[in-house]
UniProtKB/TrEMBL annotation:
Protein name: Nucleotide-binding universal stress protein, UspA family
Domain (UspA): residue spans on this chain: 1-145
Family under the similarity heading: Belongs to the universal stress protein A family.
Organism this protein belongs to: Janthinobacterium psychrotolerans
Top-level taxon of the source organism: Bacteria
């Protein structure tokens, strides 16, 4: 039914468990997987007149975020490989993660977006819940929202 599934992750423990469920679902469908991490856009320090030498350049920031992104999606790729699934990872940049998730899913010809109902814990959980709601309201593709029954232990 589904040939390519986008699994959105933010690297949190909840998101990692959701990604594992996404891999299991993809295995049932025999679908390929695209794991997506959306990093915030680079922010110039607007509160000062001169950029301090210790402040990362935009290029340094992008390199660091790509490395962080690959750290978030590599375990998902490894899990997919163990199940014999084709999988790739992508780090994208946007200050609107929901719209970027929808855009990437369309550009990469995905059939389904698989994501958690919430990501980070505490206040961040509310924000990522709103990301899920925005994806649901903006996507023309089917969105499967995975909800954990039990929260993972705090780290």
């Amino acid at each position: 039914m589904y040939r390519k599934i986008l699994i959105a992750t933010d690297g949190s423990a909840v998101s990692n468990l959701t990604a594992c469920a996404g891999v299991a679902f993809a295995e049932q469908m025999r679908a390929d997987i695209l794991v997506l991490y959306v990093a915030p856009e680079y922010q110039y320090p607007v509160y000062i007149e001169i950029i301090p030498p210790s402040y990362p350049s935009e290029e340094e920031y992008r390199i660091a975020m790509r490395k962080a992104g690959s750290g978030h999606w590599q375990p998902v790729l490894d899990a997919a490989a163990k199940r014999g699934l084709e999988a790739s990872g992508l780090t994208a940049f946007s200050d609107s993660p929901a719209l970027k998730i929808v855009e990437v899913a369309q550009l990469q010809h995905c059939d389904l977006i698989f994501m958690g109902s919430h990501g980070r814990s505490g206040w961040g959980q509310l924000l990522l819940g709103s990301v899920t709601n925005k994806v649901l309201s903006h996507s023309t593709l089917p969105v499967l929202v995975h909800r954990l029954i039990k929260e993972p232990p705090a780290q």
